[in-house]
């Protein structure tokens, strides 16, 4: 597999940091919305622990793992020898399987709710993928226009 030159360490570090930050922000929003005290996760998750500090610590670890998952899974899109279809399929299954396991460990939903979770995950994945695809398509179009302009200028200067 041939990867483009991108630091996997930087990708992992940014992913962990992003995961923790997003997890913290979401937990704060839910805590403000549902009560007056801070809850790092669902009540069923925090109830597992005798000490709230343990629940917070484990939540931070899980958020970091979720961030690491999505950042490292994105490296699939750097395998230049794979088609976009293959990259997307592999990325989807990596993120779906691993995120489902992590979300279950976080007790974000009971396992019996997987029937509802699957279409929600797929819908969110398709929306995010579509937005990113259109963004990259626009970026490539801009690059091609700049290259075309430079080629035209070069051709004019040769005459």
Short description:
This protein has 159 residues and is mainly α.
Descriptive report:
- The chain starts with 7 loop residues before the first helix and ends with a helix.
- It contains five helices and no strands.
- Helix 1 (8-34) packs across helix 3 (52-73) and helix 3 packs antiparallel against helix 4.
- By secondary structure, it is mostly helical.
Order of helices and strands: HHHHH
Please, how many domains?
Answer: 2
- Counting helices, strands and paired strands, the structural category is mainly alpha
Tell me the Rg in angstroms. Answer: 21 Å
SS strand fraction: under 5%
Please tell me the overall pLDDT.
89
Shape category: elongated
Total count of helical runs of at least 4 residues: 5
Q: How much helical structure, as a percent, in the residues?
A: over 70%
Give a quick account of the main beta sheet: strands, pairing sense, barrel closure. Answer: none
Task: For the record, give the distance between the C-alpha atoms at the N and C termini, rounded to a whole number.
Answer: 44 Å
Number of beta-strand segments: 0
Low-confidence stretches: none
Write the layout of secondary structure elements.
Blueprint: H1 8-34, H2 43-46, H3 52-73, H4 84-105, H5 114-158
Helix pairs in contact: 1-3, 3-4
């Amino acid at each position: 597999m041939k990867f483009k030159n991108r630091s996997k360490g930087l990708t992992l570090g940014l992913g962990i940091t992003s995961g923790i930050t997003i997890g913290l922000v979401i937990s704060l929003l839910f805590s403000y919305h549902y009560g007056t005290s801070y809850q790092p996760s669902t009540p069923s998750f925090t109830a597992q622990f005798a000490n709230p500090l343990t629940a917070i610590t484990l939540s931070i670890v899980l958020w970091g793992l979720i961030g690491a998952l999505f950042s490292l899974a994105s490296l699939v899109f750097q395998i230049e020898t794979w088609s976009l279809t293959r990259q997307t399929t592999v990325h989807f299954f990596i993120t779906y399987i691993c995120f489902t396991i992590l979300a279950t460990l976080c007790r974000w939903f009971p396992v019996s709710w997987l029937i509802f979770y699957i279409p929600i995950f797929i819908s969110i994945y398709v929306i995010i993928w579509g937005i990113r695809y259109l963004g990259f398509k626009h970026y490539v179009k801009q690059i091609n226009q700049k290259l075309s302009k430079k080629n035209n200028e070069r051709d004019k200067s040769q005459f």
